[in-house]
Structures are given as structure tokens and as C-alpha cells.
């Protein structure tokens, strides 16, 4: 059942998704043609596909470029990528490596066997997400500073289909802005998007009538808090 897009007061999750469909709460803009800088990342992004709607859809063919990136990131040649290996391959605009928590959360989105690693198909799906999130980030980073403030963050969330207030975006910036700059770098932006999607999916699974409200037990709430580090 579709969620009540466009209904309810600000602060809910009822904003209409961008035109063209796609999964809820994920950006629809294509990623950057240059890819993310760093070892094994470059060239054109792969075509859309892979992960969406809270679960796997039919697996697209593996993009040869993505397979090369995977092999470059897979430092120990195990056929699986860890959060540490992913962190070594991803950098922000200032060439600082992504923070470990962002990489752990991204791996966790696709790590269905709880091994702490992802294989090639899962990596391609994750790469699609990274490219799309990066595309949205640069769209709102108009001065190319490598950072976005809470107003830009609020607008980015709205483009992704989340009907959230500027006050919420300001709270997110306060949580993830460890440098005290009142803005987010790309890795922190992605971390906030991963957590927002995870919490939204969890909320939707507990709201079968799409009412925009749920009842949950104390332990259920604490479980969400532990897994998402609210």
C-alpha cells in the first residue's frame, strides 16, 4: 500500500517522491560521472538497479567497471568487502577518508547474512546508492565547499521524498557535525541518509495501514535505537 504522500503536517514522511518512481526515501538524481575519488573508484557510474523498496529486486548484470572497482577495494582478495576496506576507498572533497561509522552502516544495509561484509552483487547495489546520494549532495553544495548546511540538508531530504522540518535538519547537523562547522561533509550526509532510510523502513513495517502513526513497545523502540544509534 502506498504511503499517504502529500498528506499530514510538516514533520511526517508523506512528501511525494520525485517524478519517475523509484524507492522511497532515496535520491533519484544520477550520480556524478567522475565517481568518488580514491583507489578503485572512477569513470562513469553504473546504470540504476539493484536494491530498492526495502529488499532486493531482480539482480542486474554486473557492470564491468563496478567489478574492477570491487576488485580494487577487496584488498585481501577474499571476494567480500569489509567496512574497513570500503573506508580506505572512499574520500570526501578534502581527501579525508569516510568515517568508519558511515562505512559500517552502508555495509550493514546489504549485509543480509550478518557477516560484516558484502559480495559483488551487494557492492553494485551499494555503489548505486552512493552515486545517487553523492549526486544530491553536490546539487545542494552549490559553492563546491564539500559541505552543506542545515537548510541545504532540509532541501535535500525533501527532494528524496522526506517531509521533514528545518528544525529536524538542524538536529541532524548538530548530531553529525563533529568538527563544529554547522555543516555536513559527504560521509556524514550519507550516514544521515542511511539512518533515515533505515528508520523509515522500520517505521513503515510497523504501520501496515499507512496512517503515519505506530504503537511500539519500549523494547521495540530500544532495539531501533541500538541498531540505528539514535
Which keywords apply here?
about 230 residues; two-stranded antiparallel ribbon; about 45% helix; 4 strands; disordered N terminus; two-stranded antiparallel sheet; Recoverin, domain 1; mainly alpha
Structural features, described:
This protein is mainly α and 230 residues long. The protein has a single domain (51-228), classed as EF-hand (Recoverin, domain 1), CATH 1.10.238. The protein has eight helices and four strands. The strands form two sheets. The protein has a two-stranded antiparallel sheet with strand order 1-2. Strands 3-4 form a two-stranded antiparallel ribbon. Strand 1 (51-52) and strand 2 (55-56) form a beta hairpin. Helix 2 packs across helix 3 (100-110) and helix 3 (100-110) packs parallel to helix 7. The longest helix is centred in the middle third of the chain and has 21 residues, at 120-140. The protein is globular and about 45 Å long. Mean pLDDT is 75; it is low at 1-56.
Helix percentage range? 40-55%
Structural class, by secondary structure, is mainly alpha
For this structure, what is the CATH homologous superfamily? Answer: EF-hand
- The low-confidence parts are 1-56
> What would CATH call the class?
Mainly Alpha
The CATH architecture name reads Orthogonal Bundle
Summarize this, please?
The chain has 230 residues and is mostly helical. The chain is built from eight helices and four strands, in the order ββαβααβααααα. It has a single domain (51-228), classed as Orthogonal Bundle (Recoverin, domain 1), CATH 1.10.238.
Amino acid at each position: 500500500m502506498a504511503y499517504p504522500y502529500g498528506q499530514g503536517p510538516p514533520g511526517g514522511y508523506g512528501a511525494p517522491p520525485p517524478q519517475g518512481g523509484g524507492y522511497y526515501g532515496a535520491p533519484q538524481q544520477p550520480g556524478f560521472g567522475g565517481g568518488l575519488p580514491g583507489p578503485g573508484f572512477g569513470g562513469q557510474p553504473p546504470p540504476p538497479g539493484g536494491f530498492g523498496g526495502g529488499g532486493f529486486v531482480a539482480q542486474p548484470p554486473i557492470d564491468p567497471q563496478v567489478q574492477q572497482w570491487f576488485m580494487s577495494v577487496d584488498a585481501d582478495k577474499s571476494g567480500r568487502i569489509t567496512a574497513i576496506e570500503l573506508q580506505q576507498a572512499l574520500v570526501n572533497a578534502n581527501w579525508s577518508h569516510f568515517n568508519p561509522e558511515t562505512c559500517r552502516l552502508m555495509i550493514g544495509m546489504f549485509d543480509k547474512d550478518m557477516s560484516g561484509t558484502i559480495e559483488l552483487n551487494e557492492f553494485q547495489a551499494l555503489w548505486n546508492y552512493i552515486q545517487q546520494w553523492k549526486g544530491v549532495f553536490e546539487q545542494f553544495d552549490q559553492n563546491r565547499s564539500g559541505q552543506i548546511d542545515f537548510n541545504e540538508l532540509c532541501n535535500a531530504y525533501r527532494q528524496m521524498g522526506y517531509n521533514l522540518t528545518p528544525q529536524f535538519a538542524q538536529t541532524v547537523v548538530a548530531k553529525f557535525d563533529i568538527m563544529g562547522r554547522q555543516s555536513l561533509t559527504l560521509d556524514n550526509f550519507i550516514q544521515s541518509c542511511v539512518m533515515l532510510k533505515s528508520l523509515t523502513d522500520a517505521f513503515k513495517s510497523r504501520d501496515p495501514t499507512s496512517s503515519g502513526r505506530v504503537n511500539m513497545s519500549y523494547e521495540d523502540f530500544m532495539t531501533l535505537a541500538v541498531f540505528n544509534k539514535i
